[in-house]
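Sample intake sheet
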Amino acid sequence: MIVVLQRVKEASVVVEGRTVGEIGCGLCLLVGVEKGDGEERGLHVETGVFGALMEVRIINDGPVTFIIQKNPETS
């Protein structure tokens, strides 16, 4: 699993022309999961529409970015 934590002025996600999530000033987390990351590790993943057009918009708020990576074999 890898997480990118970014301080933002605003962020939004649009799927097939419909806004499915948005925030103002705050923290945006982009989470990447791989085989071995699952509910047994306390992770619940929502699934979307396969093949749907997704647009992610992030307005950065300064030089605050953290990358956190966890290898499934070492947990």
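Comment: The beta strands are 2-15, 18-23, 26-32, 54-69. The chain has a mean pLDDT of 83.
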